[in-house]
Automatic annotation (TrEMBL):
Family assignment from sequence similarity: Belongs to the BtpA family.
Annotated InterPro entries: BtpA, RibuloseP-bd_barrel
Pfam families on file: BtpA
Name under which the protein is recorded: BtpA family membrane complex biogenesis protein
Species this protein is from: Graphocephala atropunctata
SUPFAM superfamilies: Ribulose-phoshate binding barrel (SSF51366)
């Protein structure tokens, strides 16, 4: 995905609330149709990659409480989205909250290229509770299911979380730990969805890591040039009408 000699752009497909969640109002077929509509727009705009996420499954559950319906529905959605996109457009998935094994399973079944992972190294407190590091377990699972071709991009000091328990660990040290634990790429965010990352954080992480570094929130046409050091941008809110998902 990073073979273009420039920063890549990854567009978000935010699934409508899945069956079983409080906000669910649509059938799985309707959810698939809406996701494919977004994917088709991205295809026509010749985007570099697409990332599918169960954004509207609020309030989020920790990974240990995610039911099989989440994995099955996300597999159905992602398989359909992958079918819409040409092979030249990479496709990935994130399963909230912290459903990293579930995301790998979806990626394997749907033929996706990458997953976005929370809580890869160190612990943090998210709005759904305490999340612990998962790198060792996750990458062993990736090997066990035969999904080593699926890249794992990892958030560090991620948005919507409190990091007081690792306040003595800098973003640079977190980046180095993620690389040491075999991450395929690093994602730097602001404090919330749509909140810009600090350009200095991108520079600092790039200075200590050889991995691709992505900006994971708050990128717009007005501030994109502030992130000239970034390997890529994950863009959601800015691509939506009035910023609505």
């Amino acid at each position: 995905m990073f073979k273009f000699g420039r920063s890549v752009v990854i567009g978000m497909v935010h699934c409508q609330a899945l069956p079983g969640t409080p906000g669910n109002r649509h059938s799985i077929n309707e959810i698939i149709k809406a996701a494919c509509k977004d994917a088709d727009i991205y295809k026509k705009c010749k985007i570099d990659a697409v990332l599918v996420e169960n954004m509207h499954d609020v309030p989020y559950l920790p990974a240990s409480q995610l039911g099989p319906e989440v994995t099955s529905c996300m597999t159905a959605v992602c398989s359909a989205v992958r079918a819409v996109l040409p092979s030249s457009i990479s496709c990935g998935v994130q399963v909230l909250a912290g459903g990293n094994k579930q995301a790998l399973a979806v990626a394997l079944a749907a033929g996706l290229d990458f997953v976005r992972v929370e809580g890869f190294v160190f612990s943090h407190v998210a709005d759904e509770g305490l999340m612990h590091a998962c790198a060792g377990d996750l990458l062993r699972y990736r090997r066990q299911i035969g999904a080593t071709n699926v890249q794992v991009f990892t958030d560090i000091k991620k948005k919507h979380c409190a990091h007081s328990i690792t306040s003595d660990v800098s973003i640079e040290e977190t980046a180095k730990a993620a690389e040491f634990f075999l991450s395929d790429g690093l994602i730097v965010t602001g404090t919330a969805t749509g909140d810009p990352a600090k350009p200095r954080d991108i520079v600092d992480v790039k200075n200590v890591s050889s991995l691709p570094v992505l900006v994971g929130s708050g990128v717009t046409g007005e501030n994109v040039h502030d992130y000239s050091d970034a390997s890529g941008f994950i863009v959601g809110s800015h691509f939506k009408h009035d910023g609505r998902w």
